Amino acid sequence: MPRATVKQISILQSHASFSLQFTTNAPKNINIIISKVQSGATYDEIFQSLMHDQACSTIPISDTLLSHLLHRFKDDWKSALGVFKWAESIKDHTPLPKSYEILLDILGKTKQIEKMMSLVNQIHHHHHHHHHVTLGSITKVMRRLCGVGKWQEAVKIFDDLHTFGLEKNTESMNLLLDTLCKENKVEQARKIFLELKSCIPPTPHTFNIFIHGWCKVKRVDEAHWTIQEMKGYGFSPSVITYSTIIKSYCQDSEFVKVYELLDEMKVHNCPPNVVTFTIIMCYLTKFGEFEEALGIPEKMKSFGCEPDTLFYNSLIHTLAKSGKIQEAIYVFEVEMARFKVSRNTSTFNTMIAMFCHHGKDEEAMNVVKNMGNLGDCKPDIQSFNPLLKMWLRTRKVDLWLSDLLDEMVNKYNLSLDLCTYSLLIHGLCRVNECEWAYGLFKEMIGKDIKPRYYTCALLLEEIKQMKNYDAADFIEGYMKRMKSS
């Protein structure tokens, strides 16, 4: 086993010794709590260990503290639920509706649908007087139900809104229709709308939801019909309406139709906006039409549109893709500041991805450091994925990688997600660090993040070659359970 590996695994498995850079006393408290959360424990064990801990009992629990903790465990539902139950049990502390919303979303995202539903019912019964179930929470729940194919249950929740002290009105109807359309259930949404429209008045947004839905399922003709229906209600199509259809044409690389529609917008006195042009530039880049994509900023100027952050993010991406690195750096460092357009995490991530793609690891690392120092943008998991990929590709594995992972978890308080775990396990297998990969595999399962079947198969092959039969048995057992479920 290579020298660094044991140390690396222990770094990854210990949640302790955090060096969080916050200004108040909160970080110390957060670190104390995090250090008590054992990876791989059940949520009840986590709850119990916090309940019976001397140090934890002296910590004043605040909404900020709880939201930091939930953010920290956003890909690890057992820890999130355990910590939340503990916070909830402390007397004089009732978590904010926002915290419930975040926890419901974590449970939904990790497909713990029964736990999510029982939490909704619990909030509903315990806080009946405060009406703690917010429309935001219900929306998250409906979205997650639709996401796992339980759309009828989402509709049932909408039907029962009054029991939560919420009303069926245009806002909640639109949220339901939007949820269904985003999961491609446009026809079902349409039926529901036809039942509701006599008692709940639609808004322009209602029709835009359908236009988006029809475009998503590649039925643009239906989207055009919806525009007519919208006009029948006395509403004019907006930039959003047209931009949705433009995006649909872009996806099919029908740019001639795109330019025709731009002209039509001008005629109807509904000129395109910066979002419209960002969409067009993105797709031209995607289809490798770099020259045409780089002509979009001029075209946009001729319509009198000002660039915004998302437009610049796309422009940097386009320049990077077409190999114009210096120009991308110029836009990032000079032009955005000159036009007083702020940079967000994605702006930095686009630069990081570009540098990594060209093997410039120093430059990429500098962007991450700058981001940490600027304070207004914090690196997220996407900031690090290109770096991890690059170092695994160039085989700079040993200490570099463990330091980087240590920094991600400890300094920036990030929790690894499915994508990052997969990337690491695949990359480590390729560079013969499969013991380390196996450590991550077990950590991942402990957090109930389910690896892809392909990842398991790849790791199993490598582990067998190492003649580690116990590990091989463990992986095979896991794969069998995966298949049967």
UniProtKB/TrEMBL annotation:
PPR repeat residue numbers: 203-237, 238-272, 273-307, 308-343, 344-378, 417-451
Keywords associated with the record: Repeat
Family: Belongs to the PPR family. P subfamily.
Residues of the signal peptide: none
A Pfam family reported for this protein in Swiss-Prot or TrEMBL: PPR_1
Domain of life: Eukaryota
Chain segments annotated as coiled-coil in the UniProt record: none
Protein name: Pentacotripeptide-repeat region of PRORP domain-containing protein
InterPro entries reported in the protein's UniProt record: PPR_P_subfamily (IPR050872), PPR_rpt (IPR002885), TPR-like_helical_dom_sf (IPR011990)
